């Protein structure tokens, strides 16, 4: 694990809460009267963020909870809820040319996300904080590294969508952050290759 990444990454539970907050912010940006290009960029950004978030939880966070002996109904429902969200995301994406139908699908997606967020934030995350303690920092760094890997193939589209959907300076900051993240992941890989050689 990259030392710099470990130092700058939030804990796993903080990262998850930040993702939840980001998703809700994106939903709220989708107000009536938004231009078609900004709306499409926001929808793409939201869908990509939700997919990456779900994959991070499934690959890193949920296995760590299970390893710690956490067995709860919320944890068991999490992956099926992610699968439902993925189906709704596919529907939302398929309705780009039908704004009214897409809006209805987005409302369904928002309800599903809100339900999932409420369960995680009221039960699962507090349990993780009690049981995993210090390990949450290491998990956060792993999740951050994996996020950068998952975002890298779509970094150009993500940056373009953020520039379209975010006002002025915010778009520049986000684009710079993505570029820095891509460089960081590239540097980590080169470091690992040298170490293993």
UniProtKB/TrEMBL annotation:
Gene3D superfamilies: nmb1532 protein domain like
Keywords assigned: Membrane, Transmembrane, Transmembrane helix
Transmembrane feature ranges: 170-188
Stretches assigned to the Hemerythrin-like domain: 12-127
PANTHER family: HHE DOMAIN PROTEIN (AFU_ORTHOLOGUE AFUA_4G00730)
Name under which the protein is recorded: Cation-binding protein
UniProt source species: Rubrivivax gelatinosus (Rhodocyclus gelatinosus)
């Amino acid at each position: 694990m990259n030392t710099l990444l470990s130092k700058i990454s939030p804990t796993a539970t903080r990262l998850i809460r930040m993702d939840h907050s980001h998703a809700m912010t994106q939903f709220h940006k989708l107000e009536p009267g938004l231009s078609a290009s900004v709306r499409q960029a926001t929808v793409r950004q939201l869908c990509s963020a939700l997919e990456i978030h779900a994959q991070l939880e499934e690959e890193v966070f949920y296995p760590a909870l299970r390893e710690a002996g956490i067995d709860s109904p919320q944890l068991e429902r999490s992956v099926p809820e992610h699968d439902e969200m993925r189906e709704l995301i596919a529907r939302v994406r398929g309705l780009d040319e039908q704004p009214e139908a897409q809006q209805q699908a987005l409302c369904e997606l928002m309800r599903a996300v809100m339900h999932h967020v409420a369960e995680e934030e009221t039960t699962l995350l507090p349990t993780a904080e009690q049981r995993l303690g210090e390990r949450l920092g290491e998990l956060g760094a792993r999740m951050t590294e994996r996020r950068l890997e998952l975002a890298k193939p779509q970094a150009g589209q993500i940056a373009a969508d953020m520039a379209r959907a975010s006002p002025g300076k915010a778009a520049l900051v986000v684009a710079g952050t993505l570029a820095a993240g891509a460089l960081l992941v590239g540097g980590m890989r080169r470091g690992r290759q040298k170490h293993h050689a």
